[in-house]
Amino acid sequence: MQSTKLNAQITAVGMYVPEKVLDNKYFEEIVETNDEWIVSRTGIKERRKMENGATSDMAAFAILDLLKTTSVKAEEIDVIIVATVTPDMFFPATACLVQDKIGAKNAWGFDLSAACSGFLFALQTGAALIESGRYKKVIVVGSDKMTAISDYTDRNTCILFGDAASAILLEPTEDLSTGLIDTLLFTDGSGKDALNMKGGGSLNPSSHETVDNKMHYIYQDGKAVFKVAVKGMADISYEVMKKNNLDSDDVAYLVPHQANLRIIDATANRMGISKDKVMINIHKYGNTTAATIPLCLTEYYRAGKIKKGDNLILAAFGAGYTWGAAYLKWSID
Ligand code: UT7
Fold this sequence. Notes:
Elements: E1 7-16, E2 20-23, H1 24-30, H2 35-42, E3 46-49, H3 55-67, E4 79-83, H4 94-102, E5 108-112, H5 118-131, E6 138-145, H6 155-158, E7 163-173, E8 179-187, E9 195-196, H7 208-212, E10 219-220, H8 222-243, E11 253-256, H9 261-271, H10 282-285, H11 292-302, E12 311-318, E13 322-329
Parallel strand pairs: 4-5, 4-6, 11-12
Antiparallel strand pairs: 1-7, 2-3, 6-7, 8-13, 9-10, 12-13
Bound molecules: oxa(dethia)-CoA.
């Protein structure tokens, strides 16, 4: 028997950002930096900090926010994929904690670690589960508590990151011209030394030494990552657009990972897309790793700026290295 071909489409979105705001002035008081440097080099003005709670709490809040907007009940969710590099614990998976917190008693789930590309990797993974015909309701949530692994004495990194979570619901459609139409995803592990957190894993188990050497914090060689990220994100976004016979006029929005406004501008330039067609919220939240892209989608959708049928190009670059782009046709009215 020939099985029906299916696409995965986003049918609901949700988000959570903690209340506590850390503005650039806050960092002027704790490290040698200033608002002008941070804004001109990164585009960031503020970011959020989760004071009480962990990655699973933010993910659960984002999913509960999503569930308020749909008739789908928590018990109907089949799978929960949590994209994160800041799991509550090594194990159990954050997805287990989220499953329990939202009462998704018929779901299974797992964590997916692809740093700033985590949402795109998880979106493709969730879509494949839907396309298989086996699962009908898959939650993909990007959630990262980056303040938990930020060194507030290192001006190179602490100003960059913030905490947030955002979730989407994937459901099947027989209309193959909508939903997730294409993805291009890549991994190059030779980039492992430029951006990482070395301590606590099987290579460098936690010890007094790993703590003394600050190995439980983000390490980033900013300049090295910047160089490859600019080219990586611009090239892949252009490639996915061309591969799907789209011109810049056909694209409603570029939805880029929010790590640095200069990387985002370079990507838009390469695609020939004007600034008003680029989703931006880096000024409010900084780099929230796996949460940046769905957070943009949720905010722009709720502001009435995306309409059904819009062509969106999603793009990310992150630790690993990992990078990718997706062509998504928006499905919610
Ligand atoms: O999201 C995953 C992937 N990550 C990225 O895509 C991030 C990629 N990298 C970047 O976004 C940028 O490299 C940064 C924003 C991290 C840094 O910007 P940059 O223009 O590459 O600066 P830099 O690292 O080359 O540093 C330039 C100068 C240095 O001083 P010297 O050595 O020239 O005297 C830094 O020490 O700026 C200094 N600096 C700062 N000054 C004030 C570094 N951080 C700060 C700071 N405030 N917070």
